[in-house]
Amino acid sequence: MQKVVVDILTPKQARFFQVIGKKLEKNGFQVLYTTREYSEVTNMLKIVKIKAKPIGRFGENKLKKAVFSSERQLKYVLFLNKVKPKLVLSFGSPEAARAAFGLGIPHVMANDSPHSKFVMKLTLPLSECLFSPKCIPTSEWVSFGIPSSKIITYDAIDQVVWLKNIYFNKIKEAIEEGKCDDFSLVYRPEEFMASYVESSIPQSFLMLQKAVKKFYEKNKVKLNLTILARYSLSSPYASIGNYANVRVLDSSVDGVQLLLNSKAFVGVGGTMSGEAALLGVNSVTLSKESNFVEKYLIKRKLLVKAQSSSELFRFIEDAMFLSDKEIRKKKKYAFKILSQMEDPSEVITTHLRKNFL
User: Fold this and answer.
1) Is the pTM for the entire model greater than 0.85?
2) What are phi and psi of 43, to 5 degrees?
């Protein structure tokens, strides 16, 4: 039986490769999963019921990232040499790409984040193929050293993989119900320890705090605010408790189900922004610069952008007082778009079977 190694480094990748891995297994391939020591990923792997071999650690700053990545690459070479897979698949894992290349094993990528430039420089030139949403221009990828002939696109965004294959019926049920928890707001901060950000606290939270305070002072109502914290950190968010009923959760919860029951979502253009938008939840992004997926969602009127606490306040106030009829209408519109999108997992597994396996 041919082996495929899949490296999972983030919660999103666990969701994404859960579906693709199962489809490969149904076609007779043995799928071996690897990961690194990182609480967010460990929690999500439990949710999606994937057993992955931990190799290496997550680094919180530049020095640790460099040291831990070097250590992990050596361990990954030894692992691949032992299991001898036919193919290595990742979402842009520098260690998986470099180890596979060194051993002459094809490395294939899926990715929607050309803004993560450091990762792209370390992975794309070593990859035999890239799968990407069509809304990202090919020129963005080619600039990192992969020829356009090796880029396969799909008419969808990555979140469609698990929303269509796992949550489709639940989404339909939520539309029929057409109700959400009163004054419910979900917030997901940016990856403030990522290589392309690196900050000690999420800057978006400062804007959110001002907007929530203004909402409370004007309406004399505390929002039911759920914060899905990154890196299992809760300390940065304590101060907002004066103006909202706050729950700080880690990534061990089902974020999709949480969004389906919420009136609004505040994010910074990440995975949950795409999820919330396609679920028809009133969604706003606080990112300073829009990535291509974010621009696509804004163009389809599934996502709006706020650049100040005043704009964010107006978004929150509008969303909190929407009627059940208006909520159902927005969910139906998003569901129509979701239904029309390609399933990226089908595009990827079909191409892999034909060309690599």
Assistant:
1) yes
2) -65, -45
Whole-angstrom distance, CA of residue 36 vs CA of residue 202: 23
Q: Is residue 221 domain-resident?
A: yes
**Both tokens assigned to 16:** 């994404």
- 3-class secondary-structure state, position 2: coil
11 and 152 housed in the same domain: yes
Output the six-digit token pair for 284. 């706003």
Same domain membership, residue 307 and residue 200: yes
How many residues are there in the chain?
357
Q: Per-10-residue mean pLDDT for the chain, 357 residues long?
A: 94 96 95 92 92 90 88 96 97 97 98 94 97 97 96 98 96 86 93 53 88 96 92 73 90 84 93 96 93 95 96 97 92 97 97 89
Q: Of the candidates 107, 109, 116, which has an alpha carbon nearest to the alpha carbon of residue 140? A: 116
Q: What is the dihedral of CA 201, 10, 144, 101, to 10 degrees?
A: 140
Residue type, 330: K
Region class of 92: left (phi > 0), else alpha (psi between -120 and 50), else beta: left
